[in-house]
Write a structure and sequence with these properties.
By secondary structure, the chain is α+β, with helices and mostly antiparallel strands. It has helices spanning 4-9, 57-74, and strands at residues 17-20, 24-28, 36-42, 79-82, 98-102. The protein has a five-stranded antiparallel beta sheet with strand order 1-2-3-5-4, with helices on one face. A hairpin with a 3-residue loop joins strand 1 (17-20) and strand 2. The chain starts with a helix and ends in a 9-residue tail after the last strand.
């Protein structure tokens, strides 16, 4: 498999890791769009939300348990969590991931 996030998880590609546990990895985005731009991923390859099921949903639960722990200190005034799912949403890496954005006031709507 030639997945950049899997290679980051396996430490084949170096990335600035912010948080790691047994099921998830959080690291800085290489092309940030805000002062805080992190990615949090499951440590198994799940292509997108379309593949989440009862066998792997505990990874997603763990991601959402970890997001507040990671974000509260570095984004005191709030943060946004974004998931681009599929081609129309411009998902650029086919490994399920969530963007944590903060450090500035974010506009709405996001498109």
């Amino acid at each position: 498999m030639d997945c950049i996030f899997c290679k980051i998880i396996q430490k084949e590609i170096k990335s600035e890791i912010i948080f790691e546990d047994d099921l998830t990895l959080c690291f800085k985005d290489l092309k940030p769009v805000s002062p805080v731009h992190l990615l949090i991923v499951p440590k198994i390859h799940i292509t997108s939300l379309f593949e989440v099921d009862k066998n792997n949903s505990h990874y997603i639960s763990k991601i959402f348990e970890n997001i507040p722990k990671i974000s509260m200190d570095i984004c005191e005034n709030g943060f946004r969590v974004v998931n681009n799912n599929g081609e129309d949403a411009l998902q650029s890496v086919e490994h399920l991931h969530f963007h944590i954005l903060g450090g500035r006031q974010l506009g709405w709507p996001p498109c």
